[in-house]
Amino acid sequence: MNSLKKYLGIIWLLLAPVIFYFLVAGAIQNIDSAGKKDINNPVIWIIIISIFTPIAIGLMIFGWYALKGEYDYLPDSSKEIED
Amino acid sequence: MQNQTKGIWKVITASSVGTMIEWYDFYIFGMLAKTISTQFFPEGNPTAALLSTLAIFAAGFIVRPFGALVFGRLGDLIGRKYTFLLTLILMGGSTFLIGLVPGYKSIGIAAPVLVLLLRLIQGLALGGEYGGAATYVAEHAPPGKRGYYTSWIQTTATLGLFTALAVIMLVKLNMPDADFNAEWGGWRYPFWISILLVIISIYIRLKMKESPMFSRLKMEGKTSTNPLKESFRHKGNFKMVLLALFGAVMGQGVIWYTGQFYAQNFLETKCNIEFEQSRTIMLWAIAFATPFFLFFGWLSDKIGRKWIMMLGMLLGILTYRPIFNTFLKDTDANEWIKQGTSNNGYITQAKPIASADSFKITEIQYDFTDGKKFIEVLKYNPGINKGIPDGQSVIEFKNKHLSSDVYWKFVALIFLLILYVTMVYGPIAAFLVELFPTKIRYTSMSLPYHIGNGVFGGLVPFIGLLLTTAYPKDPLVGLWYPISVAALCFIIGTIYLNNKIDKEVND
Predict the structure, then answer these.
(1) Residue-range domains of chain B with CATH
(2) Angstroms from B386 CA to nearest CA on chain A
(3) ipTM of the complex, rounded to two decimals
C-alpha cells in the first residue's frame, strides 16, 4: 500500500499542471470581447484561474509529500504532528 | 451525570442555533439572486445583472477561506466562544443591512457597491463560524460520542437551507409577484427577519462558557502564539491539512452542493417545474433526510468516519447522471403531449391564455387528467424580436406541474441525493476535529473545510453553467465537474486516509 501511495504521488504532482493548462487553454479559447455568454467573460476566467492556481499548487505539494513517503504512516496523536 | 448531559445539550443548542441562522442568512441571498440582480444592478441588460449577482454569490464563497484564516487564528488566540459570537454579530448585521440598502434606481452605483461589501462580510463571517461551532461542541463531547454530538452542528446547514426556502416561499405565496419584487417589496422580509433570530442566538451564546480544553490550555499558558504559522508552515500539520482537503472535504463539498443547490436549480431551470412544486420537493426531501445526519454521525462513532464518507462519494459518482437524466425524461413536455393521446393522462384542454402581438408570443395552457399541466410558449419573430432569427419561431415550456406520482418520485430522488450529503457531511466535523491539535484546531480545520465547501462546492452551480454554455447539446454536462472532483477525492481518501477514531482530542 505504501508503494502505491508513493507512485500515485507522481500522478498528483503531474495532475496539478495539467489542470492549470486546461484552465488557461479554456480561457484563451473562450474569452471573446464580442461574445455575450458567461463563458466569453474574461473576469470569470480570471476569478476561476486565480482561485484554482493555489489549490493546484497545494495538490503538487500533496503529491510531493506522498512521493516522499510522508503519508506512509499517519500520526496517532497530536504530539506526533507537533514534533 | 445528569448535569453533564444537560450541559452538553445546552452547548449543542447554543452552537447549532447560531450556525443554523448563519446558514439561513447566507442562503437567502443566493435564493433571491434574480430579484436582487434586478434591484441592485443597472437595468437594460438582465444577463449582465444576473451574472453580477452570481459573481457576488461566488465572491461570498471565495472569501470564506479568508474568513477561516482570520477567525480561525482569532479563535486559537483568544478562544472559541468570543470568536464565534463575533462571527454571528457580523453575519446578522450584514444580512439585516442588505435588507435596508435602497435599490439602484434610488442611489445609483452606491447600491451594488454596498451590497457587494456586505456580501463579502457575510462570507468572512461564515468562514469563521463553522470551525468555531464544531470545535466548541467536539471539545465538550465525551469520547465515543463525538461523531453523534457534532452531527447536530452538521444538520444546521441543511436546516438553514430549509428555513430559507420556507420563509421565502411563505412570503412569496402571500403577496402578488409585483409586490414581492418591488424596490421595498417582500423579498426584503427574509433579510429583516434575520435580525430577530440573531438577537436570540447572541443572547443564548453569551450565557455559554469557554471550551474546557481551550480554557485549560490558556491557564497553562500553552495556547499557540502564531496559529497560522504552526498550522501551515509546520510540515507535520500542513500535510494533514492537505490530506483533509484532497482526501475528504473537497469531495464532500461537491456532493453537498450538487445534492442541495445544483438539484434545486436543475428542477427550476432545466426541468422548468413551477415554483411551488420545485420548492416543496426540496422541503420534503430535506425534512426526510435531515435525521440521517445524526444517524451517520452516530454510526461513525461505532465503525469509523472514513468508509461512510467514501461510500457517500461513490454513490454520488455512480448515480448522479441516471438520477438527473430521470428528472429530464419525466418532465419532457413533448413526451407528455405524445403520451396524452394514448395513456391515462390525456389532454383535457389546450387553450390560448395570453398573447403579445408585438413579439408574436402565444401561450397555451395544457391540462391533463392525471394532474399534469404546463404552459407552452410559442414565439414567432416577424423581424423585431432580437432573441430569435427573423421569420422563425421557437417553442418553450414553463410552469410544469407534475402529477402526484411523479412528484413523489422526485421527492424520493432528491431525498437520495441529500442522503449522500448526510453520509459525507454527518461525520466530517468529528473527522476534522480529531485530525488537529487543540491549540491550532480552529485554524487548521477551518481552512480545508471552507476551501472544500466554499470553493469546490460553492462553484458547482457556476462551473455547471459554464460547462452547459460550452457544450449546450448535453444538458447533463454540468455534472462532470462534481463527478470528477468527487472521484479524485474518493481515490485519495480511500488510499491515504485511515479509519481510526481518535480517542483523545484533549491534546
Answers:
(1) 2-331+406-496 (1.20.1250.20), 333-400 (no CATH)
(2) 13
(3) 0.93
